[in-house]
Design a protein that fits this description.
Number of strands: 12
CATH superfamily of the largest domain: Periplasmic binding protein-like II
CATH topology of the largest domain: D-Maltodextrin-Binding Protein, domain 2
Oligomer: single chain
Number of domains: 3
Radius of gyration: 21 Å
């Protein structure tokens, strides 16, 4: 009989596309993950993954097993939340998914809100990008999250709550004299964050479409992972960047006080949504954090109702 632990490893391997990636994410040794997957395959009587290069691809049997594995893990999590509803939110860990740039102007404030309301809990804000956070939701690692959309809505409840304008950053005042069009952006020397997730990142998608509407292609001169490094590069005059306005207001005074920002023309916005599994019975802790996150993000960005 398959164990919940094996099903968790199965879903992690499915999402990571490799045994090594699943092991790194879960803090386990790769041979241990391989052994548990072999035991699971023996239990279900079918091969679940085929090796391709350094990774693995799911078989038809794996595709059939995946929704049932997610349901099993979700059912256990729902049971734990039901117990929590009886015992109240006085201790334990509150884990909430949060995409990378949101932490720049939401993370510390949200933690403060949670601890003010629930002083005895431990808080985990997890995730670097909305794509990664959504994988955590699917596997039941987090109950709910605040992410930038669009996202895959399969088996998910998605509720937009706020939006934040994308703005152009530069240390050269002449480049901030008027709004930046798609054609101007196509010819700019740019540094953009989220290089690992560049193909899925919501801001990148918006910028690609923004530039493509002018018949051009979005190009970067420098790629980095985090917004802080991008702003520091702007401060040195090595390139310009595009970030959500909330992040720009937080980072420019600290990392690039001589730089400024200007709107894009036409204006474009990242839209933020609260997301959870459609079949989930949210715990009181998750409901509380959702309420606090909604209130906090709407105090910083433009509310969406």
């Amino acid at each position: 009989m398959a164990s919940l632990h094996q099903l968790q490893l199965f879903l992690a391997t499915y999402a990571a596309g490799s045994l090594t990636g699943a092991a790194d994410e879960l803090g386990m040794a790769q041979p241990s993950v391989s052994e548990q997957i072999r035991l699971l395959e023996r239990s279900v009587g079918a091969q679940l993954f085929r090796r391709v290069g350094r990774g693995v691809v799911p078989t038809e049997a794996a595709e059939a097993l995946r929704p049932h594995a997610e349901q099993a893990i979700g059912a256990v999590a729902a049971g734990q939340r039901a117990v929590g509803a009886v015992t109240g939110i006085t201790s334990g860990t509150i884990r909430f998914g949060l995409f990378g740039s949101a932490r720049l102007y939401l993370g510390a404030q949200l933690v403060q809100d949670v601890l003010t309301r629930h002083s005895g809990v431990r808080v985990e804000l997890v995730g670097q990008n909305s794509t990664e956070v959504q994988q955590y939701l699917v596997r039941g690692y987090v109950e709910a999250a605040l992410i930038a959309i669009p996202v895959s809505a399969e088996r998910m409840t998605v509720r937009p709550v706020a939006r934040d304008e994308l703005v152009y950053l530069s240390a050269d005042p002449s480049r901030l004299a008027k709004p930046v069009t798609g054609a101007m952006l196509a010819n700019a020397d740019l540094v953009l964050p989220e290089t690992t997730y560049r193909d899925e990142d919501s801001s990148r998608r918006l910028l690609r479409e923004f530039v493509q509407r002018t018949g051009n292609t979005l190009q970067t001169r420098i790629e980095v992972e985090d917004a802080e490094t991008a702003v520091e590069i702007v401060a040195h005059g090595l390139a310009d960047s595009v970030l959500p306005l909330g992040a720009a207001k937080q980072l420019l005074p600290r990392l690039a006080p001589q730089a400024g920002w200007v709107a894009l023309r036409p204006r474009i916005h990242d839209v933020f949504a609260l997301v959870h599994r459609r079949d989930a019975v949210l715990s009181p802790a998750a409901q509380s954090v959702i309420e606090l996150a909604t209130r906090r993000i709407r105090s910083i960005a433009e509310p969406v109702h």
